[in-house]
Amino acid sequence: MDLFFKYLQYEKRYSPHTLTSYHTDLGQFAQYLRDVYEITDAAEADHTIIRSWILTLVQQNIQPRSINRKIACLRSYYRFLLAQERIAVNPMLRIKAPKASKKLPVFVAEEPFNALLDTFTFEENFEGQRDRLILEFLYGTGIRLAELLGVQHADIDHRGKTVRVLGKGNKERIVPLNDSLLSSIGAYQEQKARFFEDNNSVNLLVTNKARPLYPKFVYRVVKKYISLITTSEHNSPHVLRHSFATHLLNKGADLNAIKDLLGHASLAATQVYTHNSIEKLKSIFEKAHPKA
């Protein structure tokens, strides 16, 4: 398993989030093999054993999306074992994933969020400017949390109005920056330079101790402010990415352009946002059409 995770990290370039999830999934599977079948080597498990584990997950009321992720993990693992000639037959070829209902992306309404940025009084100090920049950066670019944490000062092109981000699989892309976001970046950089007179941190966003920000920190900031404008329990950084895409689509942006901005590998991943736009059209139709 250690070799498998090195393969995912250094050759497949999986994100830290995916690696953590796969560690958990394979660990749970290995524990099941030991407890139920007294098997210590996953290479010895056949398709019937794997099916029994999946059935156990279903009986535990694990969500189909989570089960499908665990199945995807096992597919990758057994393909790896096959390539390493640890097994002669891939048992996952006889495994079918349960159907999972597609959830529509959760997003915040455009007017309340922009009102938050325009009217809320963020403190004119390092912490206040950093909080504002976290919100505005996620919403203004649609980048992922991991991508935001990796942004360095050298990645910001003030003249070209762009930021260079490193996405999934270490794929680099250039994302445009609007004038408001550029202004917030500049204000934050000035505050940061005053706050840390002797610090040369290359990371754009840092803690009060000049260390790079971490996921839980950003989650807390986003939750704190998004909770002011919505009662929804969904207020993670990814909600702002969903909001970015949905609002662009509602304003008539091309789906392929949104795909490139988000860094999606295929258009299929971006098309989920069209459902929100269709729901909005239905709402407008029902309110405005005399025969609706």
Task: Explain the overall architecture.
By secondary structure, the protein is mainly alpha-helical. It contains 13 helices and three strands, in the order αααααααβββαααααα. A hairpin with a 5-residue loop joins strand 2 (162-166) and strand 3 (172-176). Helix 6 runs antiparallel to helix 8 and helix 10 (237-250) packs across helix 13. The longest helix is centred in the first third of the chain and has 22 residues, at 16-37. The model has no long low-confidence stretch (mean pLDDT 91).
Write a compact overview of the structure shown:
With 292 residues, the protein is mostly helical.
Summarize this structure as a short list of keywords or feature phrases:
three-stranded antiparallel sheet, mainly alpha, 292 residues, 3 strands
As a percent range, the share of helical residues equals 55-70%
Put simply, the count of helices is: 13
Distance between the ends? 58 Å
Are there runs of 5+ residues with pLDDT below 50, and where?
Answer: none
Let me know the number of strands: 3
The major beta sheet can be summarized as: 3 strands, antiparallel
Structural class based on helices, strands and sheet pairing: mainly alpha
- Beta-strand fraction estimate: under 5%
Tell me the overall shape: globular
Quote the average pLDDT. 91
Rg measurement, Å: 23 Å
Widest β-sheet, arrangement of strands: 1-2-3
- Helix-strand pattern: HHHHHHHEEEHHHHHH
